[in-house]
Amino acid sequence: MVVTDLAKSWRSTITWTPAVIAAACPDAQVFVRGSRARMRDIGRLTLAQYIEWLEEGRFRPAGASRGTPLLDAFDAADPVKPYVAYDATLPATALRNDIGLDALRLPGFEFRTMRFWIGPEGASTPLHYDSWGYNIFYQAYGRKRFLLFAPEEKANLYPSDVFEFNTVYSRIDTRHPDLARFPRWSKARPLETVLAPGEVLVLPPNWWHDVETLEPSISVNAWLVHARDFWTPTYLHNVARRFLHNAGLYAQHRCTCHLTPDRPDVGTLLGWGETAAQDRP
Question: In angstroms, rounded to a whole number, what is the distance separating the alpha carbons of residues 120 and 53?
C-alpha cells in the first residue's frame, strides 16, 4: 500500500536535499556499500565526503591516492553505484524531528531499527523479503522503483540460503533472469510502483521487493512491530540462526553481515556467475 498524502507536509519532504543532510552532520561516519550484484561494504568515510561524491560525481578524500580499492569503487565510471545504508547515527540527530513517521504508529506497535538510505541513480537492491514487522518505507527526496511480489509467489522466486537476520534473498537476478535454472520465474506476477517524494510504502511481512533508485535519493525506513512479533516461530528461529552464525557454526561465509572487500559479494553468493559479472567494470 502506498500512502500518497500523509508525508507531503513533513519538513523532511519540503527541505531535505543531499546538501542539507551533509550540513546537518558533516562529520558523521557512514559505511558505504556497493549495490546489486556487487553489494558489499566498500569502506567508511564522512557523510560530507560521500555527499560531495554524490553531487559532483567524484571522490577525493584528503591524502588518498587513486588506485586503492576504495577509490576504485567510487570512480564515476564504476557501475557499482555505491550508497549509504544501515547507518545508526543519522536517526539520532535533529533530522529525526523532521520526519513524521509516528503518525503511522498503531496501538500496541512501536517503531524499531530506523535507517537512512542515500544513493545515486542506478543504486539497487536484489529481490528479497523481510520476515518481521511492517516495513514502513518513506521517500524524502528523489524517486525509487519497487518491484513487488506477494508472499504466495515464494515458490516462483527461489529463496536462497544466504543468511541475513530476518531477511531472505531470491536466487534470481531480476534484470537477467535465467529461465533454464529458474523456470517458475515466468509464472511470477509482479506489481510495480514508483515512490515519489512525500510518499510512504507500507510493506507487510514476507512481501518480496526489488528496489532501484531512479535519481539521487534520500529515504528512511523503520519496522513497525508488535510485542508478539518477538515470539513468533519465525523470529525465534532467526534468533537461533543468528546465535549459531555469530558463534561461527552456521553460514559463516554465506551472509550479508560480513560483506568486507575480501569476501564474496552478494551476486557471487547468490550464484549469479556471469550474470553478476555483467555489472562489474
Answer: 10
Domain residues for the domain of 271 are: 2-277
pLDDT digits (tens, 9 = 90+) for 19-69: 998 888 888 888 888 888 888 887 788 888 888 878 876 555 554 544 455
DSSP 8: T
Sheet bearing 191-195, strands edge to edge = 167-169, 124-130, 208-213, 144-149, 191-195
- The set of residues, in sequence order, having a beta carbon less than 8 Å from that of 245 and lying 6+ positions away, is 163, 251, 252, 255, 257
Read off the CATH number of the domain in which 134 is found.
2.60.120.650
> What's the CA gap between 201 and 221, in Å, rounded?
9
Work out how many domains the chain is built from and give that number: 1
Other residues' Cβ atoms within 10 Å of the Cβ of residue 184: 13
User: DSSP for 130-165?
Assistant: E-SSEEEEEEEES-EEEEEE-GGGHHHH-B---BBT
What pTM was computed for the model?
0.88
Q: Distance between CA 254 and CA 44 in Å, rounded?
A: 22
Q: Which residues contact 175 (CB under 8 A, 6 or more apart)?
A: 36
